[in-house]
Write a sequence for this structure.
C-alpha cells in the first residue's frame, strides 16, 4: 500500500478539481525552452491567498507589457550542454559564451 496520508489525497483531489494539472500543462506548452517547461512543471499551487494575489499581480504586469507591445525577450538558449562541458574542463569557444 502506498504511503499516502489522507491530507495528501485531499490536496491532490483539490488540485485536480481546480484543473491545476491542466493549467500547468497548458502553461508548459507555451514555454520556449526545456528549462522553461521544467520551471512551469515545478510551479506550486499558491498556499495562501496573499501568494495568489501576488502572482496575479505579476501576470497583470506581463499582460500590460504585452498589450503595450513591449514584452520582454523570453527566448533563451539552452545553457546546460555548455555548462556541463565547462564543468568537465572542456574549452569553450566564443559562440558558447554568447
Amino acid at each position: 500500500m502506498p504511503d499516502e496520508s489522507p491530507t495528501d489525497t485531499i490536496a491532490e483531489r483539490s488540485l485536480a478539481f481546480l484543473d491545476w494539472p491542466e493549467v500547468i500543462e497548458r502553461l508548459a506548452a507555451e514555454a520556449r525552452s526545456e528549462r522553461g517547461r521544467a520551471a512551469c512543471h515545478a510551479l506550486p499551487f499558491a498556499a495562501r491567498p496573499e501568494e495568489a494575489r501576488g502572482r496575479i499581480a505579476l501576470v497583470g504586469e506581463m499582460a500590460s507589457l504585452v498589450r503595450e507591445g513591449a514584452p520582454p525577450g523570453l527566448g533563451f538558449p539552452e545553457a546546460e550542454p555548455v555548462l556541463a562541458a565547462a564543468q568537465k574542463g572542456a574549452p569553450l569557444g566564443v559562440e558558447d559564451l554568447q
User: Anything to note?
Assistant: The chain is about 60% helix and 0% strand. The CA atoms of residues 6 and 54 lie 29 Å apart.
